[in-house]
Design a protein that fits this description.
The chain is an alpha+beta fold and about 210 residues long. The chain folds into 2 domains: about 1-40; about 40-210, Umud Fragment, subunit A (Ribbon), CATH 2.10.109. Helix content is about 30%, strand content about 30%. It has 4 helices and 12 strands; from the N terminus they run αββαβαββββββαβββ.
């Protein structure tokens, strides 16, 4: 009887080990898929600041398409994620520990950790256009820019005029009084764009396409 009990106990331990191994394998596969999807197709980001309020609030999660601009050029009104200009402190906050970078990259891929090397803003002016603000409103060339995504009464401080160089974009936060954007660091090169924000997924009761 004791022999049979020992066999059953050994089988139970073996089953537990197999179960743990399978769980670890599933987690590894899920992480690998997330990293591959992040690199090639789409990535989740969370919003760390109030610069895009009211549409995007602190701690909201958005899905960013990495392939959108393989199909067409950036358009006015798009919300884009791009590499932070070197002049900003955010571009110097990546951990130096290689293991820290590894685990951070997994967290970023899964949308649970902030990627401090990127910013999110809205495209306001395209290459070759002249953009300015006066009297609280933005002008592209001589035309007032209609901005239905802004709350009524939003005022933009005067700047410009600035002509956007070829291959660049002029980007701004919707929260015009609390956003470091092209008014601060100038136009951004299109090559620095990570992708277009297409979907707000968190919190679920405010989920929407962007």
């Amino acid at each position: 009887m004791s022999g049979a009990h020992s066999v059953r106990a050994a089988e139970a331990r073996a089953n537990r080990r197999r179960g743990i191994a399978e769980d670890v394998a599933l987690v590894a596969i899920a992480v690998a898929v997330a990293v591959v999807v992040r690199a090639l197709v789409a990535q989740a980001y969370y919003i760390p600041s109030a610069s895009m309020e009211p549409q995007l609030r602190v701690d909201d999660r958005v899905v960013v398409s990495r392939v959108a601009y393989h199909l067409h050029s950036p358009r006015r009104g798009d919300i884009v994620v791009f590499q932070a200009p070197p002049s900003l402190d955010a571009a110097r906050t990546v951990p130096h520990n290689p293991f820290g970078r590894f685990f951070r990259s997994i967290g970023v891929a899964l949308g649970v950790t902030e990627d401090q090397t990127v910013l999110i803003k809205r495209v306001i002016a395209l290459p070759g256009e002249t953009v300015s603000a006066r009297g609280g409103r933005i002008y592209v060339g001589s035309e007032v820019l209609v901005e239905p995504y802004l709350p009524a009464g939003t005022v933009t401080s005067d700047f410009g005029p600035v002509t956007v160089p070829r291959g660049d974009l002029w980007v701004m936060g919707d929260n015009r009084g609390n956003s470091e954007d092209s008014r601060f660091f100038g136009p951004i090169p299109q090559r620095t764009i990570v992708g277009r924000a297409i979907w707000k997924v968190w919190p679920p009761w405010r989920a929407s396409f962007l």
